[in-house]
């Protein structure tokens, strides 16, 4: 099925394949798709550059979008659409994923900096193994310093500070207390870990300010 399929027909296919659930007049993304989306976001975040490029090319083939315009989150969402909806091809899955983002249905957590991948505690190790270096932001809710750090990380990413080879991850502390404490010595939020390979090279606890985040990131990049 091509990306120019009639929208009404496409919606019916997506609904029948289980992407959406209807309850009266309410329409929501299915739990099955939401679960697949989180799983694929973590999986895509753990890919090396060559595997990521190959996967991206597989989904832009036949689509009206350039590979450079497809970020990792949208690509992972497209994989989840294709996994959930057997009748939808890869190019159409990418079209659907981009539509979900435009419509505000991409499941983004407002506490997670834009461009950062949400990770559970047991996903951190694989994430670090997949990147030469990484920045991991550990946060909690109702935390003014966390909000300030999140905003600074978003701003720095928007300026292009983080090159593609630097992994960007975010971990919700209260759900991952044991793993964070035992494996990464994290006991407070916000904490920002600067990791070289699978080792923590440095960290900030609390809100260090935008300048300090920039300086530490530049040191991390210089070592890659």
UniProtKB/TrEMBL annotation:
Gene3D superfamilies: Glutaredoxin. InterPro entries: Thioredoxin-like_sf. CDD domains: TRX_family. This is Thioredoxin. It comes from Halarchaeum nitratireducens.
